[in-house]
Structure to design on (211 residues):
């Protein structure tokens, strides 16, 4: 099953991609995670994209496409994958169509207020990646992960300024993909304003049980 998870920042693409990846046994390919890992390791790629991510702008299409192309060429992605955060522009989607055939596009919907609310209190475990929210889903001990005891951090692009810009970029550059994939008959809308558990149930209905 070759899937794209589409939607504004904070819609829950990453959280749900992790859950669906486990349940359906297909890898999660998150361009955001790939860029953040490169920044952490201070690789050439990391140096190139650090400021772009900080501002909430998009990494250039050509660079992003080449990274995804390489990733999808790996053995574990042969039978299926979840693209989480890619494509984000029409040129990226067009490039992807030249080397991959997608089975479905899950479109996560949530209001702008919902996005701002979620992202402006988000905390992530440095060790295992579990996501918390200072108000809606706090960890038991402040700053410490319930699951593994790791330290919680706030993403540098989860400032109000960067969140607002990411929403703006989403509307201008990414939202046109909804019509693009609708036109191909691939789009499946999911209301992601509720809990991850609820959203997962909806996704199961749309995708069917794992084979
Ligand atoms: P979110 O959806 O919460 O904004 P992501 O982890 O998907 O977070 O992306 C974080 C940042 O990584 C984006 O703001 C952008 O700078 C960069 N990025 C991720 N995916 C892409 C992409 N497909 N094209 C260009 N830039 C990307």
């Amino acid at each position: 099953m070759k899937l794209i998870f589409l939607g504004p920042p904070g819609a829950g693409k990453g959280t749900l991609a992790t859950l669906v990846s486990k349940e359906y046994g297909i890898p999660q390919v998150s361009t955001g995670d790939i860029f953040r890992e490169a920044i952490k390791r201070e690789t050439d790629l990391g140096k190139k994209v650090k400021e772009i991510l900080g501002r909430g702008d998009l990494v250039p299409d050509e660079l992003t496409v080449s990274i995804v192309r390489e990733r999808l060429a790996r053995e574990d992605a042969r039978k299926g994958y979840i693209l989480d955060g890619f494509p984000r522009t029409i040129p990226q989607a067009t490039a992807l169509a030249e080397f991959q055939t997608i089975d479905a596009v899950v479109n996560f919907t949530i209001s702008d207020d919902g996005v701002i609310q979620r992202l402006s209190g988000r905390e992530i475990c440095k060790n295992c990646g579990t996501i918390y929210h200072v108000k809606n889903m706090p960890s038991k001990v402040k700053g410490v992960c319930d699951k593994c005891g790791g330290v919680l951090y706030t993403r540098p692009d989860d400032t109000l300024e960067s969140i607002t810009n990411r929403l703006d970029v989403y509307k201008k550059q990414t939202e046109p993909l909804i019509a693009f994939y609708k036109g191909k008959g691939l789009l499946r809308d999911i209301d992601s304003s509720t809990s991850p558990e609820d959203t997962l149930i909806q996704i199961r209905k749309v995708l069917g049980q794992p084979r």
About this structure: The beta strands are 2-6, 28-30, 81-84, 104-109, 122-125, 131-133, 152-153, 187-191. Residues 108 and 190 are 5 Å apart (CA to CA). The pocket of adenosine-5'-diphosphate is lined by residues 9-10, 31-32, 35, 52-53, 56-59, 64, 85-88, 92, 157, 166 (CB under 6 Å).
